[in-house]
Write a structure and sequence with these properties.
Blueprint (H helix, E strand, L loop, with lengths): L2 E5 L3 E2 L5 E8 L8 E6 L5 E7 L6 E3 L7 E6 L4 E6 L8 E7 L2 E2 L3 E5 L2
Parallel strand pairs: 2-11
Antiparallel strand pairs: 1-3, 3-8, 4-5, 4-9, 5-6, 7-8, 9-10, 9-11
Amino acid sequence: EAQLAESGGELVQPGGSLRLSCAASGFTFGSYDMSWVRQAPGKGPEWVSVINTGGSKVAYSDSVKGRFTVSRDNAKNTLYLQMNSLKPEDTAVYYCNANPYWGQGTQVTVSS
């Protein structure tokens, strides 16, 4: 059974940093492009970032470009999202996605 498990979300002050992880199992992780998607309270899902199978191509939404960095370790079946200069508007549940598989999400709260 394919599974994705996010971790690393927590309460952080504005300007702080967090690194999210997404551990994959039950499917060939290295064969899938991987995405991060977030959903803020009361809002629809927002695509954040994507990385190709080998990690050589990445893309970001304008709202996080220059602050977030996506990476992957195919040997460890793990996807990462390094988030710097966090803002209150980054508060959301963050999900990793390997279409059609989704994780359960991890809560990131940016507040003083």
